[in-house]
Write a structure and sequence with these properties.
It is built from five helices and eight strands; from the N terminus they run αββββββββαααα. The longest helix has 22 residues. By secondary structure, the protein is α+β, with helices and mostly antiparallel strands.
Length: 200
């Protein structure tokens, strides 16, 4: 049994019984960040150990990989606590990503394992200087490239989808189109390189 599964069982009396475990709500915090709200429905205090790269699952929304270090969250009886982090989607791209009712997964998540491999690969490529120049802050490059590499490997997106997404976000003027196309080409090159290297 993984250490954090044991910790969850120790810290959460009645874990696994319907209605007794904590629930999580995800809200957009801007600048690529997500606010995670932890709600404790129990009448007992909650001390929850969340491992690095934990997965929050949902029956209707897209499962989320937390791109964060391990942390401990304390929540008062029937209270709530929150923290901010970046996430990576590990479900179907068309599914919504935010809302309430998420649960902390205590089982291995096959898609999250693949997503983590994309993240690790992209970090390595960035540290080795192998990523092409992209119009993003260095801290945003890895989560963006790894996310689209994951979706690409899953067969959910193509370069045309990526281009359409960028144009919808930027709405560039015709005079800016060459610069935008160059940014799309370079970013997709990084996405494709990450996807291919992650399979080696």
């Amino acid at each position: 049994m993984r250490r954090w599964v044991l910790l969850a069982a120790l810290f959460l009396p009645g874990w696994g019984q319907s209605g007794t475990g904590p629930t999580f709500e995800l809200q957009d915090a801007g600048h690529g960040m997500i606010t995670v709200i932890v709600r404790n429905p129990s009448t007992q205090s909650l001390k929850l150990s969340i491992p690095a790269q934990a997965v929050l699952t949902h029956p209707q929304l897209q499962d989320q990989l937390l791109l964060d270090k391990a942390r401990t969250v304390s929540v008062a009886p029937q209270g709530q606590s929150q923290f901010r982090t970046q996430t990576m989607c590990v479900g179907e791209r068309q599914e919504a990503t935010q809302g309430g009712g998420f649960q902390l997964s205590l089982q291995p998540h096959p898609q999250a394992l693949q997503a983590s491999k994309m993240l690790d690969t992209c970090r390595r490529l960035q540290s080795e200087g192998d990523l092409p120049p992209m119009p993003m802050l260095p801290g945003n490059q890895v989560p963006v490239v790894a996310q689209w590499a994951y979706w690409s490997e899953q067969g959910q997106v193509s370069k045309a989808d990526f281009s359409k997404h960028i144009h919808a976000q930027l709405k560039p003027e015709p005079k800016d189109e060459p610069e935008v196309e160059k940014a799309i080409d370079n970013t997709w090159e990084a996405i494709d390189l990450t996807r291919k290297e992650a399979k080696k």
